[in-house]
Amino acid sequence: LEDEDLVEVLINIPLSAGTQPPKQQQALLKGPIIKIKFRANIQSAPANHNGKTMHAKSITLPFQSDTKVEQVMRGYRQKVDATITTHAKVSFMIDGLPMNMNQTLMDYDLEDEDLVEVLINIPLSAGTQPPKQQQALLKGPIIKIKFRANIQSAPANHNGKTMHAKSITLPFQSDTKVEQVMRGYRQKVEATITTLAKVSFMMDGLPMNMNQTLMDYDLEDEDLVDVLINIPS
What we know:
Layout: H1 23-30, E1 33-44, E2 53-55, E3 59-64, H2 69-84, E4 89-94, E5 97-98, E6 115-122, H3 132-138, E7 142-153, E8 162-164, E9 168-173, H4 178-193, E10 198-203, E11 206-207, E12 224-231
Parallel strand pairs: 1-6, 7-12
Antiparallel strand pairs: 1-2, 1-3, 4-5, 4-6, 7-8, 7-9, 10-11, 10-12
């Protein structure tokens, strides 16, 4: 053995029938506390967002490693039920399969900062509207999108060259349609580009579909959208 070499220690703790281990022993049996990251995918009722699956903000919670998944579920729901409604059906997923409520985190070899996918199905009774908190969650997180403008002027101006304008960053809900984003962008810049300008949003060299959402394009915080602005003479 050399400096900093490792020796494994196997500790076998006997327990007489009918007795309870002391507090220190119980703590050792429970295993370490690990922080699990939960990433929620929300499936809303068809009346909301056409029943699309949306992503919610991830949260991290601490649990003993030998905690049963059933207990983890109770802890998670206590944390989020105020925003997703107690009627929601919640499932934990690992590798695309539902976790067994009778298994423990240790059984799944989960370690500190490991990720658990959460599938949340929110029903909606006919003729009713979801509460404000639920609507807010269904809308998805607010993301800041950076817009980089390329201005194509008419030949009479600047010999028709393409010029670059200063980039701007604007916040939108992730499920906002591109059409609504366009309105917000134009309200912000039309004082400088004229209302007659033709404006297009571009992703990977192709125009963005006005009926799609930012989420449909997998846009995240600080992602870049190219803006093509054509200014007629």
